[in-house]
Amino acid sequence: MPAPAPADLLREASLRVTKPRVAVLEALVQHPHADVDEIVHAVRTDLGSVSTQAVYDVLHALTDARLVRRIEPKGSPARFETRVGDNHHHVVCRSCGRIGDVDCAVGHAPCLTASDDHGFSIDEAEVLYWGTCPDCTNR
């Protein structure tokens, strides 16, 4: 089944469909784990002139609507992706910064059971695995 079109995702989230919002979603489909500079470049390639602030505003709205997920690996600018709602994790290369998706080790989000939840109702866990990617290992 093909992924829903960006315009349909925006409508389902009760967000107005605008060219910058569609362009940002399309950029993130093409460039998962992109930082703001990469997204701005992709959006400008698609639309022409668009301000960096406009892209930040779109990312904020899309993140609030849970259409986009923001991840912040230590020592790296914030990254964004459209894979949301499945509580997956990430692996990060210490050398080049490449990021990959990692599904939960067991079929059902085992990491949602904290050793001490301090009374919180936990609905998401964020795990980062660090290592060296195959390209950097083979250099």
From TrEMBL:
<protein>
    <submittedName>
        <fullName>Transcriptional repressor</fullName>
    </submittedName>
</protein>
<dbReference type="GO" id="GO:1900376">
    <property type="term" value="P:regulation of secondary metabolite biosynthetic process"/>
</dbReference>
<keyword id="KW-0862">Zinc</keyword>
<feature type="binding site">
    <location>
        <position position="136"/>
    </location>
    <ligand>
        <name>Zn(2+)</name>
    </ligand>
</feature>
<keyword id="KW-0963">Cytoplasm</keyword>
<dbReference type="InterPro" id="IPR036388">
    <property type="entry name" value="WH-like_DNA-bd_sf"/>
</dbReference>
<dbReference type="GO" id="GO:0008270">
    <property type="term" value="F:zinc ion binding"/>
</dbReference>
<dbReference type="InterPro" id="IPR002481">
    <property type="entry name" value="FUR"/>
</dbReference>
<dbReference type="GO" id="GO:0003700">
    <property type="term" value="F:DNA-binding transcription factor activity"/>
</dbReference>
<feature type="binding site">
    <location>
        <position position="133"/>
    </location>
    <ligand>
        <name>Zn(2+)</name>
    </ligand>
</feature>
<dbReference type="GO" id="GO:0005737">
    <property type="term" value="C:cytoplasm"/>
</dbReference>
<dbReference type="GO" id="GO:0000976">
    <property type="term" value="F:transcription cis-regulatory region binding"/>
</dbReference>
<keyword id="KW-0805">Transcription regulation</keyword>
<keyword id="KW-0678">Repressor</keyword>
<dbReference type="InterPro" id="IPR043135">
    <property type="entry name" value="Fur_C"/>
</dbReference>
<keyword id="KW-0804">Transcription</keyword>
<keyword id="KW-0479">Metal-binding</keyword>
<keyword id="KW-0238">DNA-binding</keyword>
<feature type="binding site">
    <location>
        <position position="93"/>
    </location>
    <ligand>
        <name>Zn(2+)</name>
    </ligand>
</feature>
<keyword id="KW-0408">Iron</keyword>
<comment type="similarity">
    <text>Belongs to the Fur family.</text>
</comment>
<feature type="binding site">
    <location>
        <position position="96"/>
    </location>
    <ligand>
        <name>Zn(2+)</name>
    </ligand>
</feature>
<dbReference type="InterPro" id="IPR036390">
    <property type="entry name" value="WH_DNA-bd_sf"/>
</dbReference>
<dbReference type="GO" id="GO:0045892">
    <property type="term" value="P:negative regulation of DNA-templated transcription"/>
</dbReference>
<dbReference type="Pfam" id="PF01475">
    <property type="entry name" value="FUR"/>
</dbReference>
